[in-house]
Amino acid sequence: MKHAFIFGTTIFLSELNTLTLNDADYNTEFLRILSFNNQNENTPLSINATISTLDGSMVQITNNVIEGRADMRAQVTGNRVKIFQNGHEEPVLDVYQLDEHEFHGLSSHILNEIHAQHPDKVLTIKGNFKVGSTHFMIENEKMFVDNNGFANGVVNAHNGVILSAVDHDFL
């Protein structure tokens, strides 16, 4: 099964269901898709994540449930998981599984890759969070990992989606 992960205008295609940060010394898995939304089987999108808010406070999400944080809330629908910090309108993390009828609104290079590679599931990842000391800011048009911006890329992530702020080479 191949998955497409879209960060801004960059698409990663991988058979693995995890997102990992490489900080030159260590690999840290920070997001795992436990189950994809499957309307035929009535299964929702479900994630595990270990991230931090911008102030460095740890946020542990297990099967869409935020552990031990009264100041955080999850908004979960069948195909979307949004994690909010109380008092903030924008989610800290937003994982959204697109339906095929939503593909037409994607950038042309992303749409071309979806048509060429036929991933089983397509997800967008957005948010403003940290993994360790690395800051991720992911919006509609760009992804920033610390101060490095990424846009309009296509990555066949044979070893899983491994993101890095160290340089522009994805592993």
Describe what this molecule looks like in 3D.
This protein is mostly beta strands and 171 residues long. It is 6% helix and 49% strand. The chain has one helix and 16 strands. Strands 1, 2, 8, 9, 10, 11, 12, 13, 14 and 15 form a ten-stranded mixed β-sheet that branches. The two termini are 20 Å apart.
What is the helix/strand order?
A: EEEEEEEEEEHEEEEEE
Low-confidence stretches: none
Report the average pLDDT across residues: 92
Radius of gyration: 15 Å
How many runs of DSSP E, i.e. beta strands? Answer: 16
- Please give the share of residues in helix: under 10%
* Form type: globular
Query: What is the CA-CA span between the terminal residues?
Result: 20 Å
| Count of helical regions | 1
Indicate the proportion of strand residues. over 45%
Major sheet details: 10 strands, mixed
Computed structural class: mainly beta
Give a brief rundown of this model.
By secondary structure, the chain is mainly beta.
Ordered list of secondary-structure elements with their pairings:
Blueprint: E1 3-7, E2 10-14, E3 18-22, E4 27-35, E5 46-52, E6 58-62, E7 65-66, E8 72-77, E9 80-85, E10 93-97, H1 108-117, E11 121-131, E12 134-138, E13 143-145, E14 148-150, E15 154-156, E16 161-164
Parallel strand pairs: 1-11, 2-15, 3-16
Antiparallel strand pairs: 1-2, 3-4, 4-5, 5-6, 6-7, 8-9, 9-10, 10-11, 11-12, 12-13, 13-14
Short key terms for the protein model shown above:
single chain, 171 residues, mainly beta, ten-stranded mixed sheet, six-stranded mixed sheet, 1 helix, 6% helix, 49% strand, globular
